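Protocol step 4 of 6.
Sequence for Ubiquinone biosynthesis methyltransferase UbiE (Amycolatopsis rifamycinica) entered exactly as in the expression construct, tag removed. Do not edit the line below.
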Amino acid sequence: MNAMAKDGLPRGAVPSAFDTEARWYDRLVGANPGYHEHLRLSARRLELPGDGTGLRLLDAGCGTGASTAALVSAVPGAEVTAFDASGEMLAQARAKQWPDGVTFVHTPVEELDGISGPFDGILAAYLLRNLTEPTRQLRRLRGLLRPGGRIAVHEYSVRDSRRARWVWNAVCAGVIIPLGKVTTGDATLYRHLRRSVLEFDGIAALAARLADAGFTDVRTTTMPGWQHGIVHTVLGTNPQEHP
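Step 5 output, structure tokens:
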């Protein structure tokens, strides 16, 4: 996305925009039918074994913890490390009740201070679209996965579908932007959301991006409900080490 695109935010300004909106964020996403269930679906699509006991998982770009909760729901026995670039979003996450083994780290994906692998799985929800160099950061995340470990990228992608773009524009104009304005008094972040989704990869390009970052067995699947063809899970595997 061009940093000066209409209705968009410069990528470097996105964490501070989330800082400003953090206290309202859970209320707004809670009004989105299927939001939490779709995150749980992407977490389940990692196909992690059993209840996750003995596994280490990374929640990349955890926000206020909705994606962290999705991982805990899917594999309650796993150790989960969650990070985000927005300190205020993390404060909202940390204020919630979590089982032992869930930790939060304040760092952007470009730095990953305090994050050390290897991890057995990664969930990256609504992260790549807001990064300056998404392929480079995918490579960085792949470096944290054990051989054979998997990533689930949970993301908006509408560029390949005229219907999806129409639905997305209609929902943004009729619901997301007005609701954001009424709730927070400022619709800047929600106009940015609309624009950033429209300008992000189509689903074929997003799958190719994971392959370019070195992931194998890349597969895509979408969500049920009104976000069918709008929100997707893209799965990839860190290749096994060769002897």
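Step 6, annotate. Confidence is low (pLDDT under 50) at residues 1-5.
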